[in-house]
Amino acid sequence: MQEHGNDQDQIPQDVMKQLQGTFSNLPNAIELFMFAHPAEDNVFTKANRQVIRAFRQLSDKITFREYAMDHELAQKWGVTHSPTLVIAPDRYRIRWIGAPVGEEGRTFLETLIFVGLGKSHLSEQAARVIEGIDSPRRIKVFVSPTCPYCPQEAVNAVKAAIANPEQVSLEIVDIQAAPDIAEQYQAQSVPQAFANDVMIGLGAQSEEVFAVSLQKMAPQTIFIPDSDAEEVATDLVIVGGGPAGLTAGIYAVRSGLKTAMVERDALGGQVALTPVVENYPGFTQVGGKALVDIMVTHALQYVEIFQGEEVVDVTPGDPIRVQTTRRKFTARALLLATGANHKPLGAAGESRLSGRGVSYCATCDGPLFKGRKVVMVGGGNSAVTEALHLHHMGVEVTLVHRRDTLRAQEFLIKNLEENHIPILWNTEIKEIHGEQRVESVTLFDNRTQKASNLPVDGVFIAIGYEPSVELAKKIGVALTEDGYIQHDAQHRTNIAGIYSAGDVEGGYKQIVTATGQGSAAAMAIFEDLINPYWQRKPA
Ligand code: NAP
Fold first, then answer.
1. Does the model's pTM come out above 0.90?
2. Distance between CA atoms of residues 37 and 53, nearest Å
3. How confident is the model at residue 10 (pLDDT cuts 50, 70, 90)?
4. How far, in Å, from the CA of 55 to the mean position of ligand 1?
5. What whole-number distance in Å separates Cα of residue 124 and Cα of residue 147?
6. Tell me: the pLDDT tens digits for 240-266?
């Protein structure tokens, strides 16, 4: 793991001023305690000191005390791992095993603000569920510093621990700092949430879905809000916060359209999970998450983004009615920029062992496999980029491809060769084995027709994407034969006022094409709303 600096001089001046303002208005003191082996002085311990020092410069409301692991308070509070942060133990039961570095800085910032405010900031709907829980819930959320999806799930849990401190306790566990706990829970992907040792969430959930999962003690997939949920009138609702949606948002607002964007997961879509993006104009090479952060910062200057919220229903008409897990929108137009989901391999054992060694995100889960043996399945740009990423982080990776030539760009293939990453050609994975977690795979050589067994700790899958069209199908939007949204040159679908952009339309699936489609769709929507084609009389 790299050390992550977080000192004040790295924070832009305007953000600093905003944070100082926020922290100076917090009514409550925020007591932080760190327990660590003094002699150990590992990167997590150092990172905690560094991060907390930066926050303490923002506010004197934050106090910090550091104790050795054999201190009587460690025994009294049952602290077992070094380092552990204990947060405001007089009011809440929130702990952090590891350190809030990388993506987790956001979770830590929000935690400090909520603790300082003494408020959970849960939506009304989620608060009702959490506050109604009347028996103990011991939550554990496994995270990693490189996982863009993790803050959403960790923040859900923090909010629950603040909303119902009598019943809810929380441990945020960095899988790199405490691999033994991850092993104990067989948590081989992040984020994963457990309550009373039962898995309640695999991947990021909206806070309402998390709340019901915690209440029912089983992963839920959907939450329908009460009928009295807030109603918001707008010109345009964009569904999806990837490059297409973000660009459309910027263009629509700048054209004068009141615009709301709803994104159920992390902003940035697939790009946020791409270790390195090559060929995006203006950047020879840029980290996927870094590019997303630039786009999101830009979009936020214009668009109101409702993140962690999911569109559950749409009723076409004038206006179009959009129901999310939290509120209702009425809109004159709807843009579906729902992107694509990773394609499953379809091998036996794959779904059973998902999160138990089967992974679709090398960026998120790679650190767990450092020094271990994995296969990466696929032959396109994603598989090669991610194999290189795993290799550079010290994972022993072998590429498995079903043909004898790669689909990836020449530049990446050369890089693969230079790094001596082994490739199994003409090979398919027929079955993934393991009781609690991945132990081996059955390989099938499609030239010799021979099967063999390869012991591995992980199976990473990057074999392309399937369009996310569940919502489009539910509304009655017509699809192409390949399952993408059917649209015309103005990105209009078969339903008046409903448009599409980005990977959900098919085509080249490059970031640059998605942003182009997003801008074109927004301009078409603007023109159509001035002069609606569905109201024009035939000439
Ligand atoms: P992709 O280009 O569609 O490649 C998918 C790969 O998976 C192919 O090699 C394919 O094999 C293999 N495959 C598909 N189904 C399979 C199955 N059932 N079993 C085994 N193998 C299977 O997908 P991608 O690599 O995810 O890339 C998606 C898009 O993102 C592309 O447009 C790509 O250019 C872009 N991308 C760009 C960058 C960048 O930095 N510019 C980085 C990553 C991705 P065959 O070759 O035999 O069909």
1. no
2. 19
3. low
4. 42
5. 28
6. 999 999 999 999 999 999 999 999 988
Cβ proximity of 309 and 491 under 8 Å: no
Site to substitute for ligand 1 among 403, 463, 515, most atoms within 8 A of C-beta: 463
User: Does any domain span residue 7?
Assistant: no
In a domain, 350, yes or no: no
Residue 344, ligand 1, Cβ within 6 A: no
> Which of 270, 382, 400, 405 for a ligand 1 pocket mutation test, highest count of atoms within 8 Å of Cβ?
382
Q: What is the total count of domains within the chain? A: 3
Catalytic residue status for 365: yes
Catalytic residue among 174, 265, 365, 503: 365
Q: Which of 216, 246, 269 finishes a domain?
A: 216
Q: Using CA atoms, how far apart are residues 327 and 510, in angstroms rounded to an integer?
A: 32
Cβ neighbours for 478, distance < 8 A, ≥ 6 positions apart: 485, 486, 493, 494
In a domain, 224, yes or no: no
88 and 26, same domain (yes or no): yes
Q: Is 278 in the pocket of ligand 1 (CB under 6 A)?
A: yes
- Residue 150: active-site member: no
The last residue of one of the domains, among 443, 461, 479, is 461
Whether residues 84 and 207 share a domain: the answer is yes
Residues 94, 240: one domain? Answer: no
Pairwise CA distance, residues 388 & 275, whole Å: 9
For 340, the enclosing helix (H) or strand (E) is strand 340-342
Please give the residue range of the domain that contains residue 380: 358-461
* Closest atom of ligand 1 to CA, residue 409: 34
Task: Please indicate whether residue 253 or residue 5 has the higher confidence score (pLDDT).
Answer: 253
**Residue 379 in contact with ligand 1 by CB distance below 6 A:** yes
Q: Within this chain, do residues 448 and 478 fall inside the same structural domain, yes or no?
A: no
- Residues 90 and 23 grouped into a single domain: yes
